[in-house]
Specification:
With 229 residues, this protein is of the alpha/beta class. It has 6 helices and 12 strands. The chain has a 7-stranded mixed β-sheet, sandwiched between helices. The termini are far apart. 35% of the residues are buried.
Length: 229
């Protein structure tokens, strides 16, 4: 991977961004990624972000932290938070903005500490890529969560993309493939998962979690809390 997403964020922070950052998808024309939205201040958080951040407690791991804006918010509140991202560019950016604890690695490689709260916002759970990948991810996260801890995740039911009622027969409808384009360079394809509430609850139960939907909105986005059984 060329880390074009991370490089675009880093360039934006350093006033050297060359628009646009594009996200190529399998269902329509490329989307322009609003890079500036990853730098919004607290008063510009979405309702689901505000509610999610209010649920955080204890020693916390932010997976897929990107610019670290959620981690920085929690850090300023005095919460012991670690920001994790696989992007080296994001790691350099988070260091610049003052994040104290940063891990640059894949979550699948990490098993050093255990946490009271693990959270993955802005559909961070999508990094699982597929339904099978989600089972693998949830099993791994059990090993780094304290027995009384919580996993906070959000996602979106994207069944609206299939208004004709014809869902893919060869895969779950929320399993999508994307690739970034920045400065006319194309990154590698990657899988990303959008999972509906019922399917998340089913997989959570099968992998040893209790799952509760604690917030939802009119755009089919929702927030879930998972606790160990």
């Amino acid at each position: 991977m060329k880390d074009l997403f991370g490089k675009a964020l880093y360039d934006f922070y350093n006033n050297s961004f060359t628009p646009p950052l594009l996200l190529h998808n399998e269902y329509g024309p490329p989307e322009v990624i609003p890079v500036e939205s990853y730098f919004f201040e607290e008063n510009a958080y979405s309702n689901i972000e505000v509610f999610a951040l209010e649920q955080i407690y204890g020693k916390t791991l932010d997976i897929g932290a990107a610019t670290g804006r959620h981690a920085l918010h929690l850090q300023m509140l005095g919460i012991d938070v670690t920001a994790m991202d696989i992007s080296k560019s994001c790691g350099m950016l988070m260091k610049k903005i003052g994040i104290k604890k940063i891990i640059i690695d894949s979550i699948y490689n990490y098993s050093d500490e255990r946490f009271d709260t693990i959270f993955m916002l802005m559909n961070g759970i999508g990094l699982a890529g597929t339904i099978d990948g989600l089972s693998k991810l949830l099993i791994h996260l059990k090993s780094i969560l304290l027995p009384t801890g919580q996993l906070i995740v959000d996602s979106t039911n994207i069944s609206y993309l299939y208004e004709d009622g014809e869902f893919p027969k060869e895969k779950y409808f929320g399993e999508l493939t994307f690739r970034y384009e920045y400065k006319k360079i194309l990154d590698d394809f990657f899988d990303w998962l959008y999972i509906d509430q019922e399917k998340l609850m089913e997989i959570a139960m099968a992998t040893g979690w209790n799952c509760q939907i604690i917030y939802s909105d009119e755009s089919d986005a929702y927030l879930a809390r998972l606790n160990l059984k």
